[in-house]
Amino acid sequence: MMETPRLRLRPWRASDAEPLAAMVADPEVMQYFPATLSRPESDALLARLQRRIDETGLGFWAAERRDTGAFIGFVGLNFPDYPLPFAPCVEIGWRLVRAAWGQGLASEAARAALHHGFGVRQLPEIVSFTSQHNLRSQAVMQRLGMRRDPFGDFLHPKLASDHWLAPHVLYRLTAKEWRAAQQNRSEV
To answer: How far apart are CA 130 and CA 149, in angstroms?
Structure first.
């Protein structure tokens, strides 16, 4: 489990099933994914997310508000299990309920995940990717200090090449870049 000033990133619980299902059924939250998910699909997602954490120690952790305990989505590090042109890799990602948007919560939680990846797991690099249309997620990547790798942009292998969401952008952050940013913050 990880904590930030406002959030807790933790393993999944059975009580997360309902709010996760509501989040992944929300067309606005799922705007940059191929489809919303049904309740059985959401339940399978929850099981898959926790299994990944159990197996690798990394994954997308459930995110909740520390003050209320309210589920706000998921954030974390993941080993993608499908072919990517820059694999093998560890990605950082997030998905939050609409009520949590615009408050800096994705960036706050992602910073904790980066600290875990670089500071605890000693990963050499963490990547992030999203649809070229998803400007909100790209803004989070930029706030995290990630740099766009235009040569790494790709068509998502799980989508038809002519699907409007297929073109994806790639962002990267190395451990060296992360440590330099941490050093600069501590000197301020």
So the answer is: 12
pTM across the whole model: 0.94
Distance (Å, rounded) from C-alpha 73 to C-alpha 94?
8
Cα–Cα distance for residue pair 73/95, rounded to 1 Å: 6
CB count in 10 Å sphere of residue 178: 22
Here the tokens at position 16 are: 């997360």
State the chain's maximal CA–CA distance in angstroms.
49
Q: Look-up: residue for tokens 């909740």?
A: 64
Look over the chain and give the mean of its residue pLDDT values, rounded to a whole number: 96
> Rounded CA gap, 118 and 42, in Å?
30
Q: Which residues lie closer than 8 Å to 160 by C-beta, 6 or more apart?
A: 166
Residue 176 CB coordination number (10 Å): 11
Task: Give the chain's radius of gyration (CA, Å).
Answer: 16
